[in-house]
From TrEMBL:
This is Thiamine pyrimidine synthase. Pathway: Cofactor biosynthesis; thiamine diphosphate biosynthesis. The keyword Iron applies. The lineage of its organism: Bacteria, Bacillati, Bacillota, Clostridia, Lachnospirales. PANTHER family: 4-AMINO-5-HYDROXYMETHYL-2-METHYLPYRIMIDINE PHOSPHATE SYNTHASE THI11-RELATED. GO terms for molecular function: metal ion binding; transferase activity. It catalyses: N(6)-(pyridoxal phosphate)-L-lysyl-[4-amino-5-hydroxymethyl-2-methylpyrimidine phosphate synthase] + L-histidyl-[4-amino-5-hydroxymethyl-2-methylpyrimidine phosphate synthase] + 2 Fe(3+) + 4 H2O = L-lysyl-[4-amino-5-hydroxymethyl-2-methylpyrimidine phosphate synthase] + (2S)-2-amino-5-hydroxy-4-oxopentanoyl-[4-amino-5-hydroxymethyl-2-methylpyrimidine phosphate synthase] + 4-amino-2-methyl-5-(phosphooxymethyl)pyrimidine + 3-oxopropanoate + 2 Fe(2+) + 2 H(+). Homodimer. Pfam families: NMT1. Residues 123-179, 289-370 form the SsuA/THI5-like domain.
Length: 372
């Protein structure tokens, strides 16, 4: 265990719709951190061996507030009990070995584990991790959504907002260092050093798909990735309300996404006759490089170029979840995960995904090879 006098409390964008009691219930695969995530394997054990040892000792950790479904699917894949330790929002449990396999987002907690800047644990490349994408249990994260009624009533506004936002994301992916600086100037919730790390890793999630292939169109809604996400969610999400739970099980992709606005944005020459000149978007968490595309679009004037007089970027993580805020009209657009949106719609909301920003899961299970 490494000692330090300072701790940076880390937080991960998590599901914010009400989700009730969860229930969940291989062949060997060589471990090795995916090239796109930038690591190398330091263990000769297979992923199955590592997961089995951690699970059997009850030392698999997760926050349990929305992105545990991938962990449950992974444990089920290896025919292991679907239980895990409740992990707090630091990586102290990983550090003191009370958690052998700790959940971490590549763009956040993994950086704190590996790096030595303020709040970091400084393990460097001595750690390894199991990638949900490599294991075939990945679920999609950040997308852009609005209500179906808003999109229907304001099609030019939606297409224009997407056009400018995607332009911001394209620039951010190509210039992550500058994007990190822009996020910091707009009130980032993390240090400049961690912000720079986050921007590099978020760029990978935006520009690489679940199979590791390069994404040619940022924001594209890939049916196979979305279907995988929805199918896993249906296995492990149980909503409190029986009617909502039944509705959730019957959802299809056509119920929760509409690609026509994305297609209109991509086909546009950048000129729009927008119906609403001032719009807002609520993030899933506090300002940082996880949302760098929107800050870049704002900073570079891309929203003004398509006709908006004002675009407000609203922090998430407060009392009102992004799904609720969009559904009740407090904001026009939001950033959420597909599972959250599907759960909200099954519960009676009127939401629709209009672009998929993250193309692969950012969740990994990090471990110290010497513990295995």
């Amino acid at each position: 265990m490494k000692e330090r006098t300072r701790r940076l409390v880390t937080t991960t964008a998590i599901a914010s719709v009400a989700i009730g009691l969860l229930s969940g219930c291989g062949g060997k695969q060589e471990t090795g951190n995916s090239e796109s995530a930038g690591g190398t394997s330091t263990s000769e054990l297979s992923a199955a061996d590592i997961i089995k040892k951690a699970a059997e000792s009850g030392q698999v950790g997760n926050w349990g507030l929305g992105n545990e479904y991938e962990v449950l699917a992974l444990l089920s894949k290896y025919e292991l009990p679907t239980s895990y330790l409740s992990q707090d929002f630091t990586m102290d449990g990983f550090d003191d070995n009370s958690i052998l396999l700790a959940s971490a987002m590549t763009y956040n907690e993994l950086g704190l584990v590996k790096n030595s800047y303020d709040g970091g644990y400084g393990y460097g490349d001595s750690v390894a991790y199991i990638d949900m994408n490599d294991e075939g249990v990945a679920m999609l994260e950040d997308n852009i959504f609005c209500t179906k009624s808003f999109a229907k009533e304001n099609p030019e506004t939606v297409a224009a907002f997407l056009y400018a936002s995607l332009k911001g994301w394209e620039y951010a992916v190509e210039h992550p260092e500058e994007a990190a600086e822009i996020c910091y100037e707009y009130g980032s919730s993390v240090s400049p050093e961690h912000q720079a790390y986050m921007a590099e890793e978020v760029a990978k999630l935006v520009s690489t798909d679940m199979s590791g292939a390069t994404v040619t169109e940022i924001g594209f809604m890939d049916d196979s990735a979305m279907e995988q996400t929805l199918n896993i969610a249906k296995q492990y999400v149980t909503l409190d309300d029986a009617t909502a739970n039944k509705a959730f099980q019957s959802l299809t992709l056509d119920d929760i996404r509409d690609a026509s606005y994305y297609e209109a944005a991509k086909a546009s020459d950048g000129k729009f006759d927008i119906e609403k000149k001032s719009v807002s978007i609520q993030l899933k968490w506090l300002p940082d490089a996880q949302f760098m595309g929107y800050y870049v679009a704002l900073d570079k004037g891309y929203y003004k170029e398509v006709g908006f007089e004002k675009v407000d970027i609203v922090s998430g993580g407060g009392d009102i979840a992004e799904t609720t805020a969009v559904n009740n009209g407090t904001v026009d657009f939001g950033v959420t995960w597909e599972t959250n949106l599907a759960s909200a719609d099954a519960s009676g909301m009127d939401l629709v995904e209009i672009a998929q920003i993250f193309q692969r899961s950012g969740l990994v299970l990090v471990y110290k090879p010497e513990n295995f």
